[in-house]
Q: What sequence folds into this?
């Protein structure tokens, strides 16, 4: 099973060789990329057998995007600490998946959600940092970022429908203001994510990633 993945199309900002070189550096830094890739391949093989008519985007794309985004965010203030937190989280989940093979499918879903959530957070960090170089990761509890020069705290939220991991050829849909309001209200309101950000985390601005 071979996939040709267009890096620019999936939102990567670095070149292929840069991502490959950086992935090797992360492996030396004990980032469990080989374990994550192997787990994704196992899931893909099973998924391919049941979805041959329309193969969705391969899960490994999210690992590639993760490498691409953290390569940029590593240089931000607080970025290395946030990347280390993600590494520890993924290492723990991988260890649990290996130690409890009967629950591997459940841990695989948790791993994918952790990767997707971190990708959205890092992508928001990348976009904001390009616009406002004073942006830093917030090491304390509360919002994810701080705009130090103007004292604004920013919370990053992952895509609202967190069960969807993307397709190469999604069916086009018409969007209008009413549909967009429903999308914004659906998971965020039900989960209380946005109200928590403002009422309990001291957030000034909350940004939600709806990208794949």
A:
């Amino acid at each position: 099973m071979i996939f040709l993945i267009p890096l620019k199309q999936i939102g990567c900002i670095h070149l292929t060789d840069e991502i490959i070189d950086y992935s090797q550096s992360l492996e030396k830094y004990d980032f469990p990329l080989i374990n994550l890739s192997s787990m994704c391949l196992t899931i893909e093989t099973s998924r391919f057998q049941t979805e041959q008519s329309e193969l969705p985007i391969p899960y490994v794309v999210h690992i590639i995007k993760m490498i691409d985004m953290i390569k940029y965010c590593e240089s931000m203030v607080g970025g290395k600490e946030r990347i280390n937190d993600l590494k520890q989280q993924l290492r723990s989940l991988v260890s649990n998946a290996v130690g409890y093979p009967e629950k591997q499918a459940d841990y695989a879903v948790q791993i994918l959600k952790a990767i997707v959530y971190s990708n959205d957070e890092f992508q928001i960090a990348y976009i904001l940092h390009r616009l406002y170089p004073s942006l830093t990761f917030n090491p304390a509890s509360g919002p994810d970022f701080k705009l130090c020069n103007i004292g604004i705290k920013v919370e990053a939220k992952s895509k609202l429908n967190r069960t969807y991991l993307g397709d190469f050829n999604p069916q086009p849909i018409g969007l209008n203001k009413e549909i967009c309001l429903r999308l914004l209200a659906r998971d965020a309101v039900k989960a209380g994510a946005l109200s928590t950000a403002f009422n309990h985390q001291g957030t000034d601005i909350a940004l939600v990633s709806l990208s794949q």
About this structure: Helices lie at 16-28, 33-50, 60-73, 79-99, 104-131, 177-191, 193-199. The chain has a mean pLDDT of 78. The first strand starts at residue 135 and ends at 137.
